[in-house]
Amino acid sequence: MKIEWVALVVASLLPCAALAGTAADMQAVADKNGCFACHGMQAKVIGPGFAEVAAKYKGDSQAADRLGKKIREGGKGVWGPVPMPAHGNLGEADARKLAEWVLSIG
Ligand code: HEC
């Protein structure tokens, strides 16, 4: 609990949101970027639960590239008609790290 809290504080103090780091760091980055407004860790909110995304692309070696791009540029039609807005404020590397983290959620 304490460690997660510290990670959250560290992440929120940095001007650039994303850090290379542990799952707790990445969860803090996702939180800071508003991902949890639309995604649950497991369950669907507006977009699919992150665990559902990980299950869908299990074994797909191209998925991190594709999803990193989609997180930055937005898109729709994979999970339903509701689009995900673009997150152009995220750098390519940061979006890719978020995609890798989502894919690692079981
Ligand atoms: C305003 C709501 C909203 C926000 C904020 C949002 N998403 Fe999404 N996300 C969606 C929706 C809706 C979909 C389903 C899009 C589709 O069907 O293609 C989605 C899909 C996804 C997918 C799966 C894409 C695919 O092609 O299978 C990933 C990964 C994802 N979001 C990650 C993120 C991350 C990381 C963030 C934070 C930076 C984020 N989302 C913020 C609504 C949102």
Name a few traits of the molecule:
binds heme C; Cytochrome Bc1 Complex, Chain D, domain 2; 106 residues; 5 helices; mainly alpha
Low-confidence stretches: 15-19
- Report the CATH architecture: Orthogonal Bundle
Number of domains: 1
The largest sheet, given as strand count, sense and whether it forms a barrel, is: none
Please bin the fraction of helical residues: 40-55%
Distance between the termini: 20 Å
Shape: globular
CATH superfamily: Cytochrome c-like domain
| CATH topology tier name | Cytochrome Bc1 Complex, Chain D, domain 2
> How many helical stretches?
5
Secondary structure tally: strands = 0
**Topology as H/E string?**
HHHHH
Structural class: mainly alpha
Keywords: Electron transport, Heme, Iron, Metal-binding, Signal, Transport
Organism: Cupriavidus pinatubonensis
Protein name: Cytochrome c-552
Pfam family, one: Cytochrom_C
Describe the structure.
Helix content is 50%, strand content 0%. It has five helices and no strands. The chain has helices spanning 2-13, 23-32, 50-56, 63-73, 92-104. The site of heme C has 27 residues, from helix 4 and helix 5.
Secondary-structure topology with pairs:
Layout (H helix, E strand, L loop, with lengths): L1 H12 L9 H10 L17 H7 L6 H11 L18 H13 L2
Helix pairs in contact: 1-2, 4-5
The structure holds heme C (HEC).
InterPro entries: Cyt_c-like_dom, Cyt_c-like_dom_sf, Cyt_c_ID
Organism: Cupriavidus pinatubonensis
Protein name: Cytochrome c-552
